[in-house]
Amino acid sequence: MKVKSFTKRDQKVKNKITTLIVGLLFAILIGQGTSFKASFKTAQMFERKGDYNAAISIYTDLYSKNINDQRVFRSLINVYKKSEKLQEGITFFETLYQSNPLNLQIGLTLFEFYYLGGHKLLAETTLSKLEAQFGHLEPFYRGILQIYMNEGLEKEILSLARRVRQQFHPTLFSQELGYYYQARRVYDRAMDEYILYLSQNKDRGYYISKRILKMSDEPESISIIDKKLTQSSHIHDRIIFILADFYFKQQQYQKAFQLHVQLGAITPKDMSRWFKFANQLQKELAYSHSIHAFEIILKNSQDSHMRGQALIGLGKSFEAQITPTSYTNIIDYYYNDNLFLDTPMLSITHITNSHLNSSIAFYDSVLTGHSFSNQSAQAYYRLGEIHYHVNQDFDRAFSQYQSSLKNHPNQNLKKTLQLRIADTYLAKGDPQKAFRYIDSLFVNQQSSDVENKRILMAFHTLPLDTVMDFIESAFTHINPTSSSFNDLMELRELIQIHFIKGSEMDKEAFQLFVKADLKIRQSRLMEAIETINYLQEIFQNSSIYPLAVFRKSLVLNHLSKSKLALESLELLKDTFIEDRAIILTGQIYELNQSNIHNALKSYHRILDEFPESIYFQPVRYHIRTLEEKIKS
Amino acid sequence: MSIQKELHKARSILVQKDFVAFGWLASIFIILDLILAIYLESFFYFSKEIKLMSAFITLGIFSFIIVLGTIYYLFIHYNKIHRYSWSHIAQLLGDKGIQEKPDRILNAFQLSEEENQSELANEYISSITCVLKKFDYSTLLIHEKLSQLKHWTAGAIIIFFALFLVRADENIPAVYRLAHPTTTFNIPKPFKLINMTGDVHLLGGESSEFIVRSEGSNPDTVFAVLTPSQVDLDSLINQSITLKSERHDDGLYHFKIENIFHDYKYKGFVPREHFWEVWTEVATDTHQIYVTDRPIFESFTISINPPKYSRLPSETQNGNVANIQGLKGSTIQINLQSNRHLKESYIILNDTKKDMNIYGKKAVGQFKLMEDGQFTVHLLDSRNISNRDPVPYHLQTIPDHLPILDVISPPQMVELGDDMSIPFYLKIEDDFGFSQLQIGYEIKRPAFLEMDPYVSIFTIPELNTDTTSQEIIMDWDLSDFALLPDDEVHYHFELYDNDNISGPKKIISGTFIARLPSLADLYETMEEQQSMAMDETEVNLEALDELREQLDNLELEALKTDEMNWEQQKEVKELIEKASEELKALEKLTEAMESINSQSEKHQLFSDDLMEKFKELQELVESLIPEDLLKNMADLQDALEEMNMEKLKDAMENLSNNMEQLESDLDRYLDIFKRLQAEQKMDEIAKRLEQLAEQQDMLDQNLNQVPDNADPSTFARMEQEEQRNLQEFQSIESLMEDASEMISPYSESASESLEQMESSDLTDETEEALSQAMRHMREMQKGDAQQQSMNALQKLQQMQEQFSQIQNQFRMESVAQMTEKFQVMMQDVLYLSKKQENLTQEVKGTSRTSHRLRDLTAQQQLLQDQLRQIMNQMMELSRETFSITPQLGQSMGMTAAMMEQAKNELADRNKIKANTSQNHAMQSLNKAALSLFNSMKQMEASGSASGYEAFLEQLQKMSGQQQGLNNQGMQLSLGQMAASAQQKMMQQMLKGQKQIKKSLDQLMEEIKQSGEDGLGDLSGLGKDMEEVIKDLQRKRFTRKTQNRQQRILSRMLDSQKSMTQRGQKEERKSEVADFNMVFEGPSGLPGDLGQRRSLALDALNRSLNSGYPKEYQNMIKKYFNTISESKILYEKGSKSEE
């Protein structure tokens, strides 16, 4: 390992030897009829490893045998450029061009290499020669343009564009030039080119629209886009459509709405556009606009299916306003969205009664109106969902689900209803019935949804060892791509740590914890707190203790009992859940008590004391946002 | 028509004139030819044939000319030759006769040729005819060259006569000879040669001389030619011999000819010097040389018969090879046949005559080849003529070389293991075979024993005397030598060849030493080696850190400048050199680690689990040096030479990054090494405690068997044994203190427990009991001693139990700690997976035109940051355990890549592609979680991080099943079963083999998932099993199938072996010793006997504590008892002297 031995000469010798060996190897491979693919991969491997000599050697050989292979040709160009062996490249392409004087691509490549290698005179001569030969072909100019764009030769680009547009087509290369200017942040020129392109290529509007929307991520481009699109909106509808998308992205929903009105609401195609637009507005929480959009469909559409869909969309818009999302947690505190462990009720913090009433009234009107009879199943289901999630009136919810079932729901809705009925049994305090119901379903339809629901019901009814068997059985056919895979892993882990591997005390405490969880599912929150209090008192040293206390804190916070929540969070010092407890403390200070100072203090503790915590990054981001807010 | 007549006349005259001109020209040629012929004849004396031929040729030419002339005339006649055509003659006449209008004659002629002539034409023709008639053709048609030709002819005649007269003397006889072409004329010669010797008679091979005299003039040189007078088949013999002699002082010409075997005709001659000389040679008369034959060898062969021991075949060579080589002692036999009947034949061998046996023309003789020399073979035929100049044959003896002995192993010094054997691997070679291979050995006892070494010889039975080269692989079992710790066996190898002619030759190897070490020594050495390795690592780390800092500084400086000054360049060069040195140092570390590993493995110093971990650590050390590091250094050097600042910056950055990687790996290595050391210490204590309890038990049993009135020396011996146990106990106590300190970073509670145990009442009481027992033994109070000994034994057993619990506690705690870390990590991974899933859903439900896509991209970035954090933690964790598998790393790497891709796609508003990448990211995270879960499960199941035990158990089970199947196969192959029974059995076997195959696949999948290696030869099993299954499905059970089944089983067993390493073996293997160790020998013994006593006791203590099997321990005790007895005798003796 002598350092002195690593001289340049030695390296060159080494390179030569490597090339020779590679050459030999390659010859043997070819001799043995090894496929082109294998050789190509070998060359790519050498290229990646930085052994350019070897890569060039193989690529050139491959190219000589497959002269029409574009991949090899491109790879060869790239490797010459990458390895800065321009002179070698020139020699190679010169020879190639001599034997293929009619090959435009080789000619262009030679021109490019001359240019890159600083042989301007040769480059110009070659260009003139090529132009004389291929000047009547559009691809020739496209190739030249590409080379100019790669080198950033603005003047040449403009001159070329002018010339070819006169010769061939007035919008030629407008898309390419649009991309080029956009990449260089010359937005007005980019827009001019895009609009020029759109004026002749209506069908390609989707791609241009995507580009323009991406451009609008840059604040300085917004006014330019607005201006240019508005000015050109008279050209044709596609530009108006792009402008509508642009306003939508800028959250100028009214303007977008107006443009859609301008585009019309007559044809089925128009209706489909409106439906999409209405859904998008709904997703963006622009409910009033979405309601108007759905109303336009209901007014103008003759298609009963479309009208039905619009009706349900309308209902969802009303529904969505019942529980406005005012704030999201800084982190996911407790098995967020886990099928088996998360309790969705706890995320509802506020109900707008007016919207509740209007929603119920809306669905009632659907159910009474004859013209909407084929939407009854959906309407009943939605009503059931309102009662289940919002009112937490499980009896009424159950009856709505049953009604929905009677109104010939489609297969998907039927399955959803069945799963929801099991949930309702559980919420009503009859887990045994819930398990029996779902178990009977599982006999006939062994889908993963039903199986997961069965595990949930078993978790609250059967011995935990049996639940574990169910879980292990599920793992024999579930794969990591499944959305419930991680949920199941979490559940298995929880039972494993606190029950299977735990002591007797741990086992008892965990069973209490599961009881508390069931009570939370049944919205018997105070009873749940009492159960946890009992657990807290008796099984202080159990492994589930910290998680139980933390759960209690979350429930208390949900019940707006901030002080109590903070007190119970205090107990979690030196436990595995301490970081989450501190963050929740900070969040309570910040949101419930508006004590930003204390909140920041808590958050900073995470940065100082828990640098390895998974929540470190979200907290850091949050602190930054909070501090910026304070400053402003 | 009259014009034609005129023209006819004119042509006749023209032809005549031309003929005359031709005659003149021909006479010129004839004259010149004649003079040329005369001159040539005067020089060359042409033979009559040439002359006649020339005459005929001349005649032929004349005839030809006449024929040609006749043909020419006919052509003229038929108007075929232009010169003589009518029109040409008309034109010619016009040109010469009517010069003012030369064409008139021609015109008239042409008009006359027409068929219908007008009157006018006739008139014109007539007028021209009239004109023609007036012409005198002989004057008009004069040949213009005629006078010139006449002049030339005259000139030729003059030249002829001039030339003729110049050499008239020669030319006149020449004219005469030419005139008589049929007569032969003798050519005159300038001198005469006379042979003065005449005919010659010789014996074959003799030389001769003949003489030639000249008369007339004396030529400078005379030649002689000898032409064989008989035709021989040999073309060379048929060739003539030409000799040359200059004129001697006596005026004669002498010719010598040597080694004549054939009859020749000969003559002397002188050839002409110049081609114009008319004679070709002047020669003597031809005479004969007559030769009489000697006896010669018609066939001659020499047979070399090597001595029997060499087992070499006989060789026969022809008489034309005069060099005879043979092994000393070979018999040389000569067979010959002469061309004549022989009267006598003999061999002259180194001046000694040996007669040969004669059989007509044949002769046979032989002698023994014992030395170099030469011989000749002589013949005498019935005429008493001997063979001429017998050829000397050179004798060369080939020696029988010394045998070659190459000792591949053992090395010069070995330490004996429990198996008390030394593995030999010898390569021996001899040209003709061996007679014996033996080991000469000498057992040297420690110096303080003052014993004479025991010398003996051991013959190696494995020697095959019939080969010339072989490898001896065997174990030399020394267990019968009753060796004791610190005994040494000095040995060498002696190899004899099989030469019975000169006597067997032997070669002796150098001296080798085998030493029996003690376990305490081994542990101590091991610890020292480990400490050194750790110290070196720490030094390496510091140096690397320093280097990296230096590199970073240089990198910063490079950023500031466009060109490096000389000092900076020098600094970079120095840095490269230093880095290279550090890498070398790291290589040494690898070697040290390897040595520690093999040392501990061979002596089985630690548990299997610990050994497994050591092995993995060694692999880690081997992979320490990143592959790219060397390339980085080379790049840096290149960049420095090219002075390319950009490249230089890049190279420095890469080198710095890789060094950082190396540092981090070294850190990891140190961490794991420290943990292993702690575990190793615990193992050592357990082992030594166990042995101590066993020794105390044995002592206790001995004490119970001692009669009440036993000899005091018995009690004294027991007291010493107890003292030794006490010392070992105290040593273990101190070990506990060390171990407590070492394990404290990994298990505080186990450390505390160990500390408590060390200072516990139990420990004190045990020590007290041991001391009391010793005291009672000294005082020969058997009952009390028994009670205390039993007490000590019980307490020792209690301590052993207690320690075992602590050790378990340590292990469990380690596993629990690790599991906890894994759990945290798994929860984090699952958390991230859930977040990724939610984000994916959110992206799915968002419009591509939504402003929220930017926020979602930011969320993806956040997830990526969190992932990076988990990966860092994983790296940290990999410092402590090997359970962070490559598969896990791959999953995390894939997640990172997919998140990055998703982020980029989101930025480009490619929702669908982003969704795909996000799904992949989530999937990889789930896989990672699964990997973590499996690792935890394995850790918990096995109680260690490796998890090999579970696999081993399964493999054992499978081997059992395979064995059963193979037995069934054996029954089938015997072919004594009914066809239906065979079918049934095959069905069973098929089912069984399928089951085993399934289990194997599952096992391999598990191993794959766990990321463990070390499958041994399992990988090839699947194929064999498939083949067996195929055979059984085709209802075919052949010998091949049976062999395959056997191979499956043996591979399974091999795999178990490879997985357990040496776990199943109870014996220890021999070990390479430290070459620097000096054997002091008997002279090292101190004279003081008291000193000797303590030395002996210490040696006894050490050896009994070193974990030897019971039979050895008994032997050791007997040996030391003898020493003790001699000590008592000595004490008694000295007392009586007082």
Description:
The complex is a heterodimer of chains A (632) and B (1138). Chain A has a domain of 91 residues: Serine Threonine Protein Phosphatase 5, Tetratricopeptide repeat (Alpha Horseshoe). Helices cover 75% and strands 0% of the residues of chain A. Chain A contains 33 helices and no strands. The longest helix of chain A has 24 residues. Chain A is globular. The relative contact order of chain A is 0.03. The N terminus of chain A is likely disordered. Chain B is built from 27 helices and 29 strands. In chain B, the strands form six sheets. In chain B, strands 21, 23, 24, 26, 27, 28 and 29 form a seven-stranded mixed beta sheet that branches. In chain B, strands 2, 4, 5, 7, 8 and 9 form a six-stranded mixed beta sheet that branches. The radius of gyration of chain B is 61 Å and the shape is elongated. The interface between A and B is large, with 44 and 57 residues.
Structural key phrases:
heterodimer; A: 632 residues; mainly alpha; Serine Threonine Protein Phosphatase 5, Tetratricopeptide repeat; 33 helices; B: 1138 residues; alpha+beta; Immunoglobulin-like; 8 domains; 7-stranded mixed β-sheet; 6-stranded mixed β-sheet; 27 helices; 59% helix; 16% strand; disordered C terminus
CATH architecture of the domain at 173-263 in chain A: Alpha Horseshoe
- Low-pLDDT runs of 5+ residues of chain A are 1-6
Strand content of chain B: 15-25%
Largest sheet of chain B: 7 strands, mixed
Mean pLDDT value of chain A: 84
- Class of secondary structure makeup of chain A: mainly alpha
Q: How many distinct beta strands of chain A?
A: 0
The geometry of chain A reads as globular
Number of DSSP strand runs of chain B: 29
Fraction of residues in helix of chain B: 55-70%
Low-confidence stretches of chain B: 945-950, 1009-1017, 1058-1113, 1122-1138
Number of domains of chain B: 8
Write down the CATH class of the domain at 173-263 in chain A. Answer: Mainly Alpha
The whole-number mean of residue pLDDT values of chain B reads: 78
Q: In terms of structural class, how would the helical and strand content of chain B be classed? A: alpha+beta
**Per DSSP, what share of the residues of chain A sits in E-state strands of 2 or more residues?**
under 5%
Helix count, DSSP H or I runs of 4 or more residues of chain B: 27
**Most extensive interface: pair and counts?**
A-B, 44 and 57 residues
Main sheet specs of chain A: none
